[in-house]
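> run fold tRNA (guanine(10)-N(2))-methyltransferase
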Amino acid sequence: MWFLCVFFHRLLDYRRPEVESLAELFGAFEPMEDGSPVRPLSLEWNLPQNHHIDSPFHFVNLPSEDVARNIARRSMLVKGIYELWGEGITDDDLEKAIRGFSDERKLPYLKPESSFRITVDNFGKVTSFQEQNERIRGLSYIPFKGRVDLRNPDHKFWLMEIDDYGENNGLPPVVERRIFFGREVGAADRKLLPTYQLKSRKYIGPTAMDAEIAFLMANQGLARPGKLIYDPFVGTGSILVAAAHFGAMTMGADIDIRVVRDGRGPDCNVWSNFEQYGLPKPLSLMRSDNNLPPWRSGLKEVFDAIICDPPYGVRAGGRKSGGRKLLKGAVDPYTVPEEKRFNHIPSTAAYSLAECVNDLLELSARMLVMGGRLVFFFPVLREDVVTVAQFPEHPCFTLIASCEQILSLRYSRYLLTMVKTGHYTEEISELAGKKHLDFRENHLKWMEEGNLHSAVFSSSDAQNTKSSFDRDSKPKYRGKYV
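> ok
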């Protein structure tokens, strides 16, 4: 069934991948004999005529209204999904389309015993109350027989419009005026965002993940009851809070024992964030080093998803165990005296992003179940032309989504979603190590310790050199015109 999917006009790269992940979560694809889902490269999508890919209006093919309704209710970026009764450039075009829509589909929602409401929405433009009433009266040719109920109607209808007034609506000028009328199948429930906003959370840090992004990551990781989700850079637990909200079991780790054990006191720590929202607490929070994972040898395929935000070295530098002297071989490994174990803070050293991502892929290849997902952020410099070949890779994983979030003039990050499609073996591990060496050598040398920070924060005329990145060198709109 084709539906009209209307998105919120934000985080544009994230919109379709989120819907596709939720479609898999709610059973839009038939499972294989071994129980693993059949996931095509993407759902079938279409755009309204002459619309740009950034348009909030998209057509999507879904198997049923139940799937569409579930997607809309859980999505962070879907405003609503509708059964389209008609569309057109002018009101006459719209009337002709609605009259031609199947009576078999329309009449069940026009019965005398039912109630209804019509909402008028104009993208990028405020419509006065008087104009809304005039637009609704213009739909008198639709034979509504039920009563109007503005509070709790049985059926909700939407008259949506987008104008062609150039760049003021945040879209390319090629988007022409279009009018849509349809029945609401499912609508977003964004009430949880004010509930989980960081400013009202008990325990946050400088790198705490924004609530909306955390929920998007949990959706990409297919968080649901019965699934075990792990965050190896747990920090203040924002990502695990989002996963727990959707019913998943959670585990986390961090290299800083003061974060996972102490927080800012007994009533202000990671655990209190879960207590604040009445969520199940994590099964475990560990002091663990991503570079030296604590798992026993032979342990494999434990987690259903690994969702994390690795340290970039911008706001909080990555650290690994050992200390500079130990890693350079200047001192030998030491044993902490028994009387100092409780308060001892282990020595750490700088941990480059290239090494961190390689360790993350190795951990995920070993510890994720087949079909499990790895979801993590990967930073890039916007002056480079970013291609899929520049993202980290591993023989066990298939990249299914890369979503850009622009953070500044020079700096953005991609949310990468990978699915484990191959079993982990020692041979695979050796091959992955070779891929990592090639990746580090040939692609992103700025990922080494210190280079990313200087690239993001150095002034454009640093060292009397002019930056090669020009504000106007990037296209104003992403993607191609259609």
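The chain has two domains: 2-190, 193-462.
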